[in-house]
Amino acid sequence: MRKVLSAAIALLVLISVTLSAGCGKSGGDRLEQVKKNGKIVIAMEGQWAPWTYHDESGALVGYDTEVGQAIAKKLGVDAEFIEGEWDGLFVGLDSGKYDLIINGVEITDERLEKYDFSTPYAYDSTVLIVTKDNTSVKTFADLKGKTTSNSLGSTYADLAEANGATVSNVDTLAETISMILSGRADATLNAETSFYDYMAEHPDENIMIVDKTAEASKIAIPIVKGDNNKALVEAINKAIEELRADGTLKKLSEKYFGGDISGSN
């Protein structure tokens, strides 16, 4: 009796798996789903000026925000933005909660193992920031035994740890700078563009750049790997190249960064 029951259960499981696989094939294309829904769901922090932040009226703005809207328009859909903390963005992407992330994400070898990336839409160097009276940290190599304030899991935190630093987790650029100024951290690593944007708002702040990476980071859009996402990646790549060709990326770069970050040089 147990053998018969076990065989029956196994047969039911096999049928269930087969049906599930069939459903996945017929309705799994992400681009088709996006167009059917009439929107593309984009995750971002919303607290990282000038990439993605809220203006004085509370509206979500920034370079990444407008890039996302421009890409959505090219796809013929609306852009729906969902904000969250850095680590949570990738958790949501992995679970299918978001279609993609647009949040100044750098292409790295580690991330390429898990995600497909779009064509880069921006390029940015990483800089080492300290207070003007700091004489112990002048290069990335000086971070050994020091503390930095950075978001855990970010490329900035990874680079800091690779140079021997201990990373104190923060969520916003303002909190990052506050940690340095108060002496709770020796330094921070961040985007060169973000530093200049911050200094434009706080020209008398007691911080400075002491070192920067020789090669600019490639900023692109991560999407979960899979055959069902290939058409979406291709469509986004086409949109990015059109936005670069028609000058939209350059215009947005100059609006938010005071210069063109849409090209590798």
Structural commentary:
This protein has helices spanning 2-27, 30-37, 63-75, 86-95, 109-112, 155-162, 173-181, 192-201, 230-245, 248-257; strands at 39-44, 53-54, 60-61, 78-83, 100-101, 115-117, 122-124, 126-131, 147-150, 166-169, 188-191, 207-212, 217-219, 222-224. Helix 6 (155-162) links the parallel strand 9 (147-150) and strand 10. The radius of gyration is 22 Å and the shape is globular. Helix 3 (63-75) packs across helix 9 and helix 3 runs antiparallel to helix 10 (248-257). The chain folds into 2 domains: 30-122 and 219-257, D-Maltodextrin-Binding Protein, domain 2, CATH 3.40.190.10; 126-214, Periplasmic binding protein-like II (D-Maltodextrin-Binding Protein, domain 2, 3-Layer(aba) Sandwich), CATH 3.40.190.10. By secondary structure, the chain is of the alpha/beta class. The N and C termini lie far apart (73 Å).
Summarize the structure.
By secondary structure, this protein is of the alpha/beta class. 43% of the residues lie in helices and 20% in strands.
Features:
265 residues, alpha/beta, D-Maltodextrin-Binding Protein, domain 2, 2 domains, 3-stranded antiparallel sheet, 10 helices, 14 strands, 43% helix, globular
Structural class: alpha/beta
Rough outline: globular
* Poorly predicted runs: 1-27
Largest sheet: 3 strands, parallel
**DSSP summary: helix tally:** 10
Task: Let me know the number of strands.
Answer: 14
**Strand numbers in spatial order across the main sheet:** 4-1-5
Question: What would CATH call the architecture of the largest domain?
Answer: 3-Layer(aba) Sandwich
CATH superfamily of the largest domain: Periplasmic binding protein-like II
Per CATH, the class of the largest domain reads: Alpha Beta
Percent strand equals: 15-25%
Encode the helix/strand succession as letters. Answer: HHEEEHEHEHEEEEHEHEHEEEHH
CATH topology of the largest domain: D-Maltodextrin-Binding Protein, domain 2
How many domain modules?
2
How big is the Rg? 22 Å
